[in-house]
Amino acid sequence: MHLRARVMYDFDGEAANGELTIKEDEVLNILRQDVGDGWWEAENSQGVKGLVPQAYCEAVDGTQDGVSSPGSSVPSPSYDDRQDGVDEEWDYDEEWDGEPGSPTPQTQAPNGVYRQSSQTSQWSVSSTDSGLNGQGNYGLHGANRHMKRGGEVKTGTVSKTFKSRFSVFAKSGGEAYLLGADTKKRHIPANTEVRIVESDEGPMWEDPGGDWRFTCEITNPKKESKLKGMKSFIAYQLTPSNTGIRVSRRYKHFDWLYERLSEKFTLICVPQLPDKQVTGRYEESFIERRMDGLQRWMARMTSHPIISQCDAFQHFISCTDEKQWKVGKRKAEKDELVGAAFLQTITPPDTGLEVAHVETQHDNFAKFVKSMNDSMVVIQQTFHESRKRHMGPFKREYQKVGQSFNAIAESFEIDTRPRVNGNDAPPQESVRLTDAVKNTGKTYEDIGLFFAQQPSKDLIPFEDFLREYHGMIQTFPDMIQFHKHTISTVKECQKQREDQKMDFEEAESVKQRADVVSYAMMAEINHFQDERVRNFKEAMEGFLTEQIKFYQNVTAKLEDALGKFQDI
Cys staple from 176: which of 182, 215, 525, 528, with CB 3.0 to 4.6 Å? Predict the structure, then answer.
């Protein structure tokens, strides 16, 4: 049963940032209290969900089940505390891949994602109401609380520092990082340091060195079970080319890895996994398609110089021991260098960046992403419709043509010639013509089958490739917003400095940290573009090669049919 709370003040939420607009006296269902100090996830009477300020709400029947009075802080368990109670068996019971009867998992806020430094941003406007100030509120201030007088409506206003408090930028700690508010001292092991280097093609992630490029083959999907057969799952065998060590992984293990990588790398493209499916999960066709999707995803991860070297990924592809798996899993889940904190591990080139130049490049890439996203929608739809036509109308049309030739051939077979001697058999030329027409009918029926079978060789693989890239493109808007907020913060700090409201050293330190973000964004863009050129070249070559083979087979069939007539 959800907690219930009444709204005391109006709040105009920003839907794009996951906020919920609420009105005075509205009653909400409180879904989560652990979003961050001072913020709850709530649902209104229309079933719309979003984030609301805790200080704007009060328990319907006083304080109950942890619902506190306005302005009070509800302690929420840390991520580490929540994890300590989880069964960490090799095949722990949470069925992330949707087995029937298993609880649907809810994604918990990873450690550090929703937390901010306890140091309040010095750029916030001061407020006499401390109810919303302080830890976890992303620079928000207390509500302006006014009682109703006549037609006056009391409202609660929430101010911002520089950025929207529920954007990826704020959630991942981007604002705290840029403004130097993230004062937590973190040990950065030498093997986790990341360098960005200048090249002829622009900033690039530094090559890790050695034989870091490898592949990871996914094979032998096998249905396994546990709990005496009560729960079944598909296990895949993974074999990295650089070690040859074979490990067994389920889809939920891939899901775990995806969560770790997407949490850690805010400015690196981590595409989503193939979709989950509840029914038909053990059908051979689905298993093959899922394995192909996982293979594509894994190839994307192994080809990235940063992702492929991170501890969580290496642990995933190499650990064969159950106890060591448990240790590595907990270590990855307690990693503090995630989100904006990961930026502390990056060493960029010494050359400072011009804000105007960076902003121009940012806008150009944003246009590229939008254009590519729109075109990907069109081409995917085009290929999908073409596949359906090949397997349906095209096949039927060619077979219909073939059947019409067969019908006329049957008419030719009853050819008789009136002769005085009573021998009414047609001449050999007529017989050979009938056979040639009949062969033409079969040729067109075969071509119809060619059309139905061809999509599995070119259209479907290319459609899968397009779907993969569309998923990759859809990871960039959050990265673009993160970088956009970074640029805006630098410009605002420069203005503060010009107005003598900020020291030069402070503004310069913000600029230096912003350069880290910009260099990381540039390096990832260049990596993506290089991979895009290589991947599309290979995909187009494969598609056109299969198309040529297809039309060569069709041509050969038609030439053979033509030869039958030329031999008459």
Answer: 182
Convert the pLDDT of each residue in 111-167 to its tens digit.
Answer: 333 333 333 333 333 333 333 333 333 333 333 333 333 444 443 333 334 444 446
- Specify the pTM: 0.70
Which residues are CB-neighbours of 433 under 8 A, at least 6 positions away? 412, 565, 568
Task: Name residue, tokens 């087995």.
Answer: 99
One-letter amino acid at 313 equals F
Q: From CA 514, how far away is CA 489, in angstroms rounded?
A: 8
Q: What angle do CA 528, 530, 535 make, to 5 degrees?
A: 90
Q: What does the DSSP 8-state code read for residue 43?
A: E
Whether the CB-CB separation of 489 and 178 falls below 8 Å is answered with yes
Q: How far apart are the first and last CA of the chain?
A: 85
User: Are residues 415 and 426 in contact, defined by beta-carbon separation less than 8 angstroms?
Assistant: yes
Q: Checking phi first, is residue 280 left (phi over 0); if not, alpha (psi -120 to 50) or beta? A: left
In the block, tokens 């050969």 appear at 556
- Going by DSSP bridges, is the β-strand pair 27-36/3-7 parallel, antiparallel, or unpaired? antiparallel
Q: Looking at the DSSP assignment, which residues form a beta bridge with residue 42?
A: 30, 50
Q: In the numeric block, which tokens belong to residue 352?
A: 């400072």
Token pair in block for residue 529: 């573009």
How far apart CA 60 and CA 6 sit, in angstroms, is 6
Give CA–CA dist 58/4, Å, rounded. Answer: 9
Helices vs strands, H then E, count in the chain: 13, 11
- What is the amino acid identity at position 349? P
* Structure-token match 């021998």, residue found: 423
Give, in order, the Cα–Cα distances in Å from 389 to each of 380, 381, 395, 398: 14, 12, 8, 12
Q: Sort strands 194-199 and 346-347 into parallel, antiparallel or unpaired.
A: parallel
Which residue type sits at 526? N
